[in-house]
Design goal:
alpha/beta, L-arginine/glycine Amidinotransferase, Chain A, 12 strands, 28% helix, Amidinotransferase, Amdntrnsf_FN0238
Length: 301
């Protein structure tokens, strides 16, 4: 997780992210920092090991208003591979320049990096793919799910599948209630070890059945509505392992309140529900709990 020291409304990403709102209050950075620290505290108390990347100490470092969402520019594999992704907004590309700091953070925690793959990084000539925002990955069955958008180009999804040794990609459209593409796949769906949450309503009928059939091969599918997706970030959740061998299903307080009692009962079979109070980060940043977390699958040294 990355401390949001530069957090602010990002005009460059607001062009296609319908969830961002320009705030009236002036202290959004302070509010976001407080929400972040509380989130780290709650995750740690729940038994999740959290690695926090702090402020960039380079004197001329570019401002990174969306740095609190690191899963878009970096991901890791159990093989030790680290992947750096090409970002759509110019001011988000500076986030990937912090790879040396992240590498040091991994080293301090005795994690082994066995290869670095730049799918694009800061190179704007490559097709865009924004990490595990663009892709929701079934790591158990080696299937990658991705909804098309200007931030998720199908050719780059296929590059990821080929280069990282995944079995296949399931690529589809996901359309909001306003008729626009959802900016990221992880807003409309999430995959746990034995369950999946998805807004089937967002997927056009011609592709819907094939996506749901693939998900249902290995998991209990929990269907959420467009209203739950857009108003409460119910699709932007993540299952995490805890130190005692258990798991928690992490979401925002908004998402927890947006799920029905039946849906909560379904998810509670797979882990304790953990709600993070992040209203400012959601409202101004346009991303939720899952976006704030870049999972670490790297092996121990």
């Amino acid at each position: 997780m990355v401390r949001p020291v530069d957090f602010a409304f990002n005009e460059q990403t607001a062009t296609d992210n319908e969830f961002q709102h320009n705030p009236e209050q002036q202290n959004v950075n302070e509010l976001a920092l407080n929400e972040f620290e509380k989130a780290v505290q709650l995750l740690t108390q729940a038994g999740v090991k959290v690695l926090v990347l702090g402020k960039n100490i380079e004197p001329h470092a570019a401002k990174t208003p969306d740095a609190v969402f690191p899963n878009n520019w970096i991901s890791t594999e159990s093989t030790g591979a680290v992947v750096i992704y090409p970002m759509y907004a110019p001011n988000r590309r500076a986030e990937a320049l912090r790879w040396p700091d992240v590498e040091n953070l991994f080293a301090k925690n005795n994690l082994s990096v066995n290869g670095l793959l730049y799918l694009g990084g800061t190179n704007t000539s490559r097709p865009i793919l924004e990490g595990t925002g663009s892709m929701v990955i079934d790591r158990i069955n080696k299937v990658v799910y991705a909804s098309r958008s200007i931030r998720t180009e199908e050719v780059q999804v296929n590059n990821f599948v080929k280069m990282l040794g995944y079995e296949k990609a399931v690529v589809f459209d996901a359309i909001s209630s306003t008729g626009k593409e959802f900016y990221h796949t992880n807003v409309v769906m999430s995959i746990g070890d034995k369950f999946a949450v998805i807004c089937a309503e967002a997927i056009p009928e011609k592709e819907r059945a094939s996506v749901l059939t693939e998900l249902a091969k290995h998991r209990e599918v929990i269907d959420i509505s467009l209203e739950q997706t857009e108003k409460s970030f119910c699709g932007n959740i993540i299952q995490l392992a805890t130190n005692n061998g258990g798991s928690v299903v992490v979401m925002s307080e908004s998402a927890l309140n947006g799920f029905s009692a039946e849906q909560k009962q379904q998810m509670e079979k797979y882990g304790k529900l953990l709600a993070l109070p992040i209203p400012t980060i959601e409202y101004v940043g346009g991303g939720s709990a899952r976006c704030m977390i870049a999972e670490v699958f790297l092996p121990q040294k």
